[in-house]
Structure formats: C-alpha cells, structure tokens
Amino acid sequence: MTGAEPAHPVLRLSDITKRFGALTANDRVSFDLARGEVIALLGENGAGKTTLMNILFGQYTADAGTVEVFGRILPPGAPRAALDAGVGMVHQHFTLAGNLTVWENIVLGAQSLTALSLKPREVKARIRDLSQRFHMKVDPDARVGRLTVGERQRVEILKALYRDAKILILDEPTAVLTPQETDALFATLREAIAQGLSIVFISHKLHEVMAISSRVIVLRHGRLVAERRTEQTSREELAALMVGAEVTAPEIRPSTPGAPLLSLAAVTTAGIGSAPGLDAVTIDLRAGQITGLAGVSGNGQAALSNLISGLTLPLSGEMRIAGQPVGDWTPRMAIGRGVGRIPEDRHRTGTIADFTLTENAILETYASQFARHGWMDWQAARAHAEEMIATYDIRCPGPDVRIRLLSGGNMQKLILGRVLETGPQIVLANQPVRGLDIGAVNYVHGRLAEARDKGAAVLLISEDLDEILRLSDVIHVISEGRLSPAFPRGTMRPEDLGQWMAGHGFEEPAHAS
Amino acid sequence: MDLFDILISASFWAAAIRIASPLIFATMGELVCERAGVLNLGIEGIMVAGAFAGWIAVWAGLPLWGGVAVAFAVGMALGGVHGILSVPFGLSQHVVGIGMTLLATSLTFYTYRVVLPEVSSPPKIEAFQAFEIPFLSKIPVLGPALFAQTPLTYAAFVLVIVTSLVLYRTPLGLAVRAAGENPSAVAAQGLSVTAIRIGAVMVGSGFMAVGGAFLTMSAFDSFFFDMVNGRGWICIALVVFGAWKPGKALLGAILFAAFDAFQIRLQQTPIGAVVPYQVFLMMPYLLSILALVVMSRRAEVPAALMVPFNKGER
C-alpha cells in the first residue's frame, strides 16, 4: 500500500433519516469513516446515536438514506448482511447468554445452523489466537455468567473479531468499566487500529472522546451539528456543541460537616442474590456533608442502600441514627426519621409507571399529609403536585399525566422533589444522574449540594468517578462488600480510586462467601 | 412379596421403563420448548391429541409407524398455533398454554365423537409388540427390563441421546439454548428468534404428541378419555427436576415411573391390605415433590423463559 493512495472510506452513511412516530431520531445524517480511523459519535441521551448505529447494523430500518460498506450498499434491516460485510457491533447492553461458555457465545451464529458439529477445538484455538493478537485475556471455557463486566466486554469484542470484522462499532463501551478496564480497552482498540480496523466509538464522556478518537461527530436532536478533528477541538467546545449552549456546572463549595446523622459500626449484612452484602462496614454520614461511595455496581451498594432505607437489618454490628442505636428498622420508620431516597432504578423502584404524576408525587406522604379521616384529599395532592412541577422545573403536560410518559430527566426531577420537599435529614442518592443529559445532571447536582448546605447528610452512590470526585466532600470505595477508609475531597485521583475499586488496598482478602 | 424382592425383580423394572416411556417423550418435548424460552402448558392437551391421532390413524389403516408420524404431525400443528400466539404475538404463555390444553382436549373428544358416533367401547388396534433384542435381553434382570420393550420405548431413549447431541453439539442447539437465555444475543447475530422459538415449540410439541401416542399404541391398544391423566403436568415438573438437562430429566422420568410401578406392587403386599390404596396412588407424586424440593434448588432456569422478545421497538 502506498501513502499517496486517496483515503477510500470503509463506511459511508448518506442522508440517514429515521422517525419514531412524531419523533425524528435521525435527520439526514451523513458521514464517512476511513480505514484505521476512530470516529467518536458524541451526543446527549436521545440525540440519536444508538438509533443511527442500529440502522447501520441493520437492526432498524431507516426511513431514508443508505449505508455503504467498502463501496457496497447494505440491504436495509438485515444484521446478517452487515455482519457479512465486516461490521461488528458491541452493544451497550451486552448480547451474551450467561449460561453459555465464552466460546459458545462467540461462535453463536457464526456457523451454519445445519452444520452437524460445533467443532469446539478449532473454535477455541482460533479464540486463543485472537486474544493473543489483540492482547485480550479470556478463558474460552469460562461461563459468561461468572465473568466480570470488563471480561464480558472482551467477549463481545472477540465475537466481532472472530467474524473478521473490519469496522467495529462500540456503543458506550466504557459506561460500566473501571478506569483501569477502560485503559485496557483503549489499548485493545489501538491494537485493532494498528491491524487495520476502523472504529466508531459512541460516547458522551468527553475525556474519553478526546483520548481515543481522531475525529468527532456531534449529534444533537437527531441532527449532525458539528464535525471536528480531535486535535483541533477542546472538551469545552464539544460540551457546548453537544448541548447547544454554554454549559456551566454548578459550583460546589467545600462544606463544614456536623455531627454524624447515621453511623454504622462493623456492620455485616446478608448478600442480595449474587451480589455481596456488607462486610464489617464502618461509616459515618455527617450533617452538611456529601459522602461519595464509589465502586463497580454489584459490590454491596444495594445492601447498603437497603439497610439505610429499612429493607434489611444488620446481621451483626451496630447502626445508629442521630447517635441513637436502632434495633427495629423498617422502611416506614426510615421515612419517619427523615431518610429520603433517590432509588437506583427510577422506573422500577422510584416510580409507579402507570400512576399519575400526582399519585407518584405523594407516594411516601399520602397517609400523613393528604388524607383526612381516612379519605384521600385529591385537591390538596394535586395542588402539591402542581407546586412541585413549578419548583423543580418538571417539564410535563400537567399533574394528571402518567409518569411513564415523562423523560428520564423529568422523572428524576420529580423523585428529587419528592425527597427534598420533606426536608430530609439523610439523602440516599443512588446513581442519581445515570442516563440523564448534562442539563439535568447539573440540576440534580446543584440541588443535592443545596440539600447538603441546609444540613442534610447526603450519601451519593455512583459508578461515575467524575461525579463522585466533583460532588463528594469525603469518598469511600466499596469492593466486594468491604469499605475503604474515608478519603477527604481533593486527596484522590481517578486512578487511585480505580485501584480500590478493583479490590486493591484492602487490608484482608474478601471473605470467601 | 418382600419389598426388596420387588426392587430386584425384572418385571418391576420392565414396568418402570414402560411407564417412563411416554414421560420421556413428553419431557424431552417440554425441555426443548423451555430451552428456547417458551413454557408449553399445552402439553397435557397435546398428549391427548397425540394419543388419539396416532391410534385413529392406525385404526383407519395406516401402519404403526405411520400412526406415530401422524401423532407427531398433529403435535407440530398444535405447537405451531402455540408458537404463533406466544412468540410473535407475545401473549402470556400461561394463558396460551392452558388454552391450548383445553382446545386440544376438546377438539380430540369432538373428533372422536364425529369419527365414532355410536360406539360404546372404543375399537382396539394391533399395538406395538415387545421386541427382544438378541443377546442383550438375556442379561439377568437388566435384559428383560431394558431390552425386551416395544420399539417405541427404544425410540424414547434414542430421542434423549439425539436431543442431548443436538442441544449441546450443534450450532442449531446452541442457537436454541441462546434463545432461551438471551434472545438479543441471537438477534444480534442476524438470526431470527421468532423462527427458532416457533421451530422449537413445534418440534417439542411433536415429541409430546408421540408421548401421548405411546399410551394408545404401545402401553394399551385403544383410546380412552382421561388416559393421559395428568402425565403432561408431571413432565413439566420433570423438566425442572432435570434442571433443563436431557440426561437428568431422563433419570427423573425413570425415578417417577419406578415409584409408580412400586406402589402398584406394594398394594399387593400385606401392607396393602391395611393401608387404603389411595395412599399408594399418592406416593409417586409425593415423592416427586420431595425430590423436586431437594434437586431443583440450585437449578439454572433459562433466563429468558416466558419472556417475550420484541426486536428493535421503542
């Protein structure tokens, strides 16, 4: 190959348009991908990134426009054709079967369904060969259900490489990874580029986009609004392009912490399913302080939030609320003692999807504040909901709308409002901004800081280290149910936290159970 | 007769294997459906339909294996209806399954009355006869128990081996297992989850129908209402007992059948003279429940069992 050869695009999207009912998810989007190039597709949630990639991969059919791979137009709506043309996609939600082994997952669909044998030996040899070439350690015989998230992602990438993919599409690949795993992923991707692959990298994390891509394409409301060479742009510019306006994050000032409102001393709890429980955890949640809890999800966060919200009791150890030891502890008591919860899953546990906004707004206070002589006072409830819509800037048709129809950001504002309206002593914020766009993120963060300044003890549970580092006055890391020491604001770098998240630094090994 | 004598007698084990045969067919059928992610509660009705279809076909003049083929085809057709309702339409698998059982049972009785309007007792056919496999059938105890059965019983055991091989050793089986575990993994490879699931339900239902046909064409030589008598429901439990694995499910079927054969013999011992016979009838079910409690606690349920799959919609 000669350097003088004009860069021929390996992939060309032309005027892709896709509508879902009244919503235009993609509006005449076009771009080219050259060989050995990494394009970052940047945009907020709902900007149309995933839709666009699903069209490219044939999972959706575009209303207009064409996808060309190596100069040939792909038939619309046929993932098979995309695979055969050399397009491999690593989905945000992994498409792996947990009870199958790594090699079975990789070979699924790669052989003719009428073949009489899976040829396990050949398949495994090929997988070992690929994992060496691309420096991805993985055991072909391991059950996928037992792998860590990072390992599962390697299986997904291997799946694409096994099919001789020349173009890799990665949809939010770092969303669930620790910083170390992200570094390993980037090393793999660089190796892939060196071997002639081309990559489309979908993300909304600016520092990653700056680190890995050669070109950035920004989508907003389904439109391609900007295209930049990575070396000629900046995080600030990209953030503004993504949102469509200058972005100002709320300023979080250091706080002066007060007395502990909730203390755990050597508390151990039962595990939840396959996730561990707490293992001799000691922690103080102080008034006027945001305590950040970093960690890969599934390491005991659920056990801690269940404990605080009254769903479980400690097996051993002591729990104190405002200095008083608690014996009996139920969700009702937790609400009574001023524990406000922003649950991890706003769809499943935060709201009741088919209830109205009004009904959802009073879920925790209907009996105490909106009932008279055992009868609901709907007028008062509705007035309260209207007030919340105004105070918390909930964009919606009105208080009678079913909550299901609200966007994630507005749903979260309602939950936030429901918590803050009661003037909580302790705020349990579990992944409060997951899946929200920058505007909503800033809003939620600002309000949490405000609650802190009013004297609440805020526990922020998050997998997003940027969020933890920005908001927390003190940080703990949780790994396999164990808690790291408290690190004050400004003493930790993301890499340091990543080490703890991976389980390094704890005094004793995790209990075998 | 002593209890121990029963357990070492060839006739007891021969009976156990015979009683197990229809269960093995239907359990394999249910297992295939569930491995693909579809709970098939139509099993009881499909067995009734298969029992009737195979028998009536032979009565009408088809050879015995022709009758088996007819039963299989009827099962496939009913499975097709189940599949279309539960897979592309995504209807509740419980409701569809119970509906299919009622539909298949009623259709069978209706057809019976249409074909044989005025008979008081159903006609008999020339059923499958025991076929003694040379040499093997001469092994003491084991020989008469395993190798002096009807061809349809041998077919049941072959089916377990084939099901196992297909599920674990072929790309098709891998796709079926993946469809029951995470259908989006199948769809992401450009394969049709709908086709795989409907196919599995149709083939599985075919096996169930052959299980039913065993009753009319091998165990007996005629068709009676109520002759399936809850065997389908037992097979649902056997799949769970077998942790969705063909080999273990086969063991479960034999174990249940052995309990059944045992209680019949127990009724003829001195104990049987004292204890009401209903207690013995209850025994296999009771023991099955106990075995289920012990065995299936740690079983891995196919993760997408009973979860309809809608591709690419929002």
Structure description:
The complex is a heterodimer of chains A (513) and B (314). By secondary structure, chain A is of the alpha/beta class. Chain A folds into 3 domains: 233 residues, P-loop containing nucleotide triphosphate hydrolases (Rossmann fold), CATH 3.40.50.300; 179 residues, 3-Layer(aba) Sandwich (Rossmann fold), CATH 3.40.50; 78 residues, no CATH class. Chain A contains 18 helices and 23 strands. Chain A is globular and about 70 Å long. Chain B is mostly helical and 314 residues long. Chain B has a single domain, classed as ABC transporter involved in vitamin B12 uptake, BtuC (Orthogonal Bundle), CATH 1.10.3470. In chain B, helix 11 packs across helix 12. The termini of chain B are far apart. The mean pLDDT of chain B is 91. The interface between A and B is medium-sized, with 34 and 24 residues.
Keywords:
heterodimer; A: 513 residues; alpha/beta; Rossmann fold; six-stranded mixed beta sheet; 24% strand; globular; disordered N terminus; B: 314 residues; mainly alpha; ABC transporter involved in vitamin B12 uptake, BtuC; 14 helices; 69% helix
Brief overview:
The complex is a heterodimer of chains A (513) and B (314). Chain A is α/β, with parallel strands linked by helices and 513 residues long.
pLDDT < 50 stretches of chain B: none
How many strands, which pairing sense, and closed or not: the largest β-sheet of chain B?
Answer: none
Estimate percent helicity of chain A. 25-40%
Q: How would you name the CATH homologous superfamily of the largest domain in chain A?
A: P-loop containing nucleotide triphosphate hydrolases
What oligomeric assembly is this protein in?
A: heterodimer
For the record, the CATH architecture of chain B stands as Orthogonal Bundle
Overall pLDDT score of chain B: 91
Low-pLDDT stretches of chain A are 1-6
Number of strands of chain A: 23
Shape of chain B: globular
CATH C-level label of the largest domain in chain A: Alpha Beta
Tell me the distance between the termini of chain A.
57 Å
Most strands sheet of chain A: 7 strands, mixed
Rg on CA atoms of chain B, Å: 20 Å
Mean pLDDT of chain A: 89
Number of helices of chain A: 18
Q: In percent, how much strand structure appears in the residues of chain B?
A: under 5%
